[in-house]
TrEMBL record:
<dbReference type="Pfam" id="PF10183">
    <property type="entry name" value="ESSS"/>
</dbReference>
<keyword id="KW-0472">Membrane</keyword>
<feature type="transmembrane region" description="Helical">
    <location>
        <begin position="52"/>
        <end position="70"/>
    </location>
</feature>
<keyword id="KW-1133">Transmembrane helix</keyword>
<keyword id="KW-0249">Electron transport</keyword>
<keyword id="KW-0999">Mitochondrion inner membrane</keyword>
<comment type="function">
    <text>Accessory subunit of the mitochondrial membrane respiratory chain NADH dehydrogenase (Complex I), that is believed not to be involved in catalysis. Complex I functions in the transfer of electrons from NADH to the respiratory chain. The immediate electron acceptor for the enzyme is believed to be ubiquinone.</text>
</comment>
<dbReference type="GO" id="GO:0005743">
    <property type="term" value="C:mitochondrial inner membrane"/>
</dbReference>
<keyword id="KW-0809">Transit peptide</keyword>
<dbReference type="InterPro" id="IPR019329">
    <property type="entry name" value="NADH_UbQ_OxRdtase_ESSS_su"/>
</dbReference>
<comment type="similarity">
    <text>Belongs to the complex I NDUFB11 subunit family.</text>
</comment>
<comment type="subunit">
    <text>Complex I is composed of 45 different subunits. Interacts with BCAP31.</text>
</comment>
<keyword id="KW-0496">Mitochondrion</keyword>
<keyword id="KW-0679">Respiratory chain</keyword>
<keyword id="KW-0812">Transmembrane</keyword>
<protein>
    <recommendedName>
        <fullName>NADH dehydrogenase [ubiquinone] 1 beta subcomplex subunit 11, mitochondrial</fullName>
    </recommendedName>
</protein>
<keyword id="KW-0813">Transport</keyword>
Amino acid sequence: MLGRQLIRLSARRTNTGALKRSGHGPELQEPTGYLFNRKPGEKIEPEGWEKIWFYGFYGAMLYGAVGLYFKPDTKTRTWARMEAEKRMLERGDTLEYKHTDYII
């Protein structure tokens, strides 16, 4: 008896009339011949978020550029050169080469 009920329940289709399908609004705006659907001479009003985005984005870019320009030099090569120059001065070596007048 339980087996027949399970077979009957599994064979029954639920809600066969209403199938859900993805839908959306109109697919295409008819072309008007104007770029971005704006008539020539029509003034564009900026939206509220545009000024905040403009000043925030470009302000952050300017801040980053100034930070990169003034960042300290942390290269290993620069550190090694400064360390070598300091050790040479402690030993009394000269850092400049003497000019020689070679004639070839």
